TrEMBL record:
The lineage of its organism: Bacteria, Bacillati, Bacillota, Bacilli, Bacillales. This is Diaminopimelate decarboxylase. It comes from Salinicoccus sediminis. Pathway: Amino-acid biosynthesis; L-lysine biosynthesis via DAP pathway; L-lysine from DL-2,6-diaminopimelate: step 1/1. Coiled coil: none annotated. Gene3D superfamilies: Alanine racemase, Lyase, Ornithine Decarboxylase, Chain A, domain 1. GO terms for molecular function: diaminopimelate decarboxylase activity; pyridoxal phosphate binding.
Amino acid sequence: MTLEYINNELSVNGNGLTGIAREYGTPLFVYDENMIRSQCRKYHRVLEEAGLDYSISYASKAFTSVQMVKLLAEEKMKLDVVSQGELYTALKAGFNARDIHFHGNNKTAQEVEYALASGIGLIVVDALDEVALIDSIATGKIDVLLRINPGVDVDTHEFIQTGQEDSKFGLSIHNGSALEAVDAIKESRHLNFRGIHYHLGSQLSTESPFLNALEAVYSWLSDSSLDIEVLNMGGGYGVKYVEDDRRFPIESGFRSITGKLKRLAEKYGYPLPHVMIEPGRSIIAEAGTTVYEVGVIKEIPGITKYVSIDGGMSDHLRTPLYDAQYEVIPVNRTEGGDTEANVVGKLCESGDIIGKHLAVPADLKRGDLLAVKTTGAYHYSMASNYNQMAKPAVVFVDDQETRPVIRRQTLGQLIENDVL
Ligand SMILES: *Cc1c(COP(=O)(O)O)cnc(C)c1O
């Protein structure tokens, strides 16, 4: 995010965060719209330069909303959904159903019906059982990819590793189950086998797992005498949360991935496939910042200091869930120097932490604003109403204006479905 201090006030694209937070309230998710667009364009550029037939599908689960989906359509992105709700959101935004792909390790019959009725472009089959399910519901032909498991280990948190042999996702290329599913698809009446998909994991910082997967996949395709039109390499391109993190190098990484693909296709005598990728986090994470207001500050003499903010694990789950690290900075910079503190949420759990041992302004006081950087992905989308907390508002900021994208939940909405 283009966050910078102007006259000691944190701003996005030149717009001060104090005024934005005053207008929309806190906690508030603020997105740099220019940055979301420039990430989309960066992926387009590098794949175009590789001279490939390609498409880029944004993974809705990172963050979705009607305005987000409209922006993605403007940026010529396609869309991945993993539930009826994500598909509904995309359709309400007027997104072309042909450009939507349905993922998930347990699509329900109702979801498959809804997807087919809406004219979805592609379903990614995740299990053998799904072939019969889709075949029994479909009335016309439906293009499918098969989610395979290439069995490559990746160096990331175990909850976000997905391409290893022991996984709830996809079918192994090593034990014959992927090939069995391909045969079942080809024998079905309505499923049209277009190619394969894999997703190796999330927050990957180098191209090496992608290169290893390509090797494994092409050798398997060749051994199995299997032709594909589409090769979907998934998402998982890492972002920078804190100084020590290594961002996936999109330009050089994709030059090396596409170079490898071309060499392997030639080596095994395959035409180049239509290449799909599915970035989520790397499109949106660094474009987002959460702004909170400071409340209670508690000093435990000789031990530590706790700074409580007006949100927490209801809008920031990744620290409790993965022990993820974040940078927390003041919206208004002062001259008073820093002190160490634990910045914590207001929910009734000791694990409700934004960050431990962080440097915060020594003169921080109730009413001051703190910004948590790189919260654009898997924050709002993982938000809950735990403790009956209302979900925060979301705004997009470009150089011209700040525009509301999602309104703050109201108290009334918290009991909207309650039987009174
Ligand atoms: C989560 C997911 C993605 C996106 O992952 P990011 O780490 O956000 O890029 C892409 N494809 C599939 C199938 C996924 O499950």
